[in-house]
């Protein structure tokens, strides 16, 4: 019941708070291992979180874990998602939510990530997925400008948060070095008023 009302009872990624201001935080995140799936959102009619069930099956959130050990893997937060141009689908063949827009004419794909627990220090230490759509990869230390907000992360709300955060970071002399991330800390069935979200930009 706690998850329906937004209670976050799972591990969240470790980070060092570098700076805090009224408009954002600058955070340095430790290296981590992620499980991700890249898919065409149109395949999941009316369900923009279609990749969630694929990753949840991998860790065993809904029953038997779909990995070769098989091993139950603890759920963490946030869930990361990114929208990417179709050429980025090749990433899925190799490798809390994050959204990147493709160029005009590009078919947009969505990549969703679960952060794996800290006990997995390298990608090869994590259980191998049975579903070939799930890719395991490591991420190194990284720094983000972050703003937190509640409620439903609708396209309009996210767009407003992204625009304001980018302008605030650039105003204060930070260099944005990539597309924004949208991190969602609650599962899809959490009631919208109780959700926790963050918009994040990689910075130097």
Automatic annotation (TrEMBL):
The record's Gene3D superfamilies line, in alphabetical order, gives:
Regulatory factor, effector binding domain
* Residue spans crossing the bilayer: none
What is the top-level taxon of the source organism? Eukaryota
What family does this chain come from, according to its entry? Belongs to the HEBP family.
Query: Know the name of this protein?
Result: SOUL heme-binding family protein
Can you name the source organism?
Xanthoceras sorbifolium
